[in-house]
Design brief:
By secondary structure, this protein is an alpha/beta fold. Helices cover 41% and strands 17% of the residues. It has eleven helices and twelve strands. The termini are far apart. The model has no long low-confidence stretch (mean pLDDT 92).
Length: 284
């Protein structure tokens, strides 16, 4: 394995620049992921990364793999099929987002799935959601409940930033993520109901039938949804019950409440259908 000791090394400088600049990542179509969990998830869905980096302390242990976690890293490096570059520990610390992290760090092609011409399945639309932690939380919830598509507007935090990647804990690699989609483009492709949450909505979430596919509209932390989305024909508004103690819910919490209520209703419907079919079979 090639070792890099100098901070002036071209590959090291490129890694640091990419890790620190969302503009560079967007322009080059590349992302930086770190840690065994994220690398394993990427390999399972997208294949080999472009480059791998390990700290010298981890590389020295790969053959023996005596420390917990090193055997997992050794297996992932073998699966990746990419010769890792070994960074001096002080250099790895400059590139890493994790204090004393064992690596690996990988440069990968950012997945760019095509947005369907007609949106007919479940999805979540993030309208200028700016906090990376909130974006990551929504992505993680979507993966947990089986909503496989997330669409982000211009002005939403870059979904493939290191902070969002860490917050989502691998959810990215179970989702189709589309960025830079305007409200007008979203509305032009809708073939299912769109639902927005609003405190003054006449109907409550728990009164709504959420069994059919839909697109959930989630707005900016301070300003809420863009006016054109709220006013668009066919957009349904629902309120989430709460006390007067707070003005509104965090967008990540609101997303979880809505998506889990949707999952609950669908699970209950499937269970009821299963019981009905069993009763019919028994009566024959």
């Amino acid at each position: 394995m090639k070792r890099i000791e100098s901070p002036s090394n071209e590959r090291f400088r490129a890694l640091v620049a990419l890790a620190g600049s969302a503009r560079d990542r967007r322009r080059e179509g590349l992302s930086v992921i770190e840690g065994a969990h994220l690398l394993a998830a990427y390999l399972a869905r997208h294949g080999a990364p472009r480059q791998l980096f390990l700290p010298a302390r981890t590389a020295a242990e790969l053959d023996a793999a005596s420390r917990p976690g090193v055997a997992e890293i050794a297996a992932l490096v073998a699966r990746a099929g990419v010769e890792p570059l070994v960074l001096a520990d002080r250099l790895f610390a400059q590139a890493s987002q994790v204090e004393n992290g064992p690596g690996p760090i990988a440069i990968v092609d950012t997945p760019r799935p095509a947005l369907p011409q007609r949106l007919v399945d479940d999805a979540v639309y993030l309208d200028r959601v700016q906090d990376p932690g909130n974006v990551g939380s929504v992505l993680r919830t979507c993966a947990a409940v089986g909503v496989g598509r997330v669409i982000a507007s211009p002005g939403t935090a870059f979904c493939w930033s290191p902070k969002v990647l860490r917050a989502a804990m691998g959810a990215h690699f179970h989702l189709d993520i589309h960025e830079g989609v305007t409200a007008a483009e979203l509305l032009s492709r809708l073939a299912v109901e769109a639902v927005a949450t609003a405190a003054d909505a006449p109907a409550q979430l728990y009164q709504a039938d959420l069994r059919a596919p839909r697109v959930w509209l989630l707005g900016n932390e301070g300003q809420g949804l863009e006016a054109s989305l709220l006013a668009a024909p066919g957009v349904r508004r629902l309120s989430i019950p709460q006390t007067d103690a707070v003005e509104s819910l965090n967008v990540g919490v609101a997303a979880a409440v809505c998506l889990y209520e949707q999952l609950r209703q669908r699970s209950a419907a499937r269970e009821a259908d299963s019981i009905t079919r069993s009763q019919r079979s028994a009566s024959c």
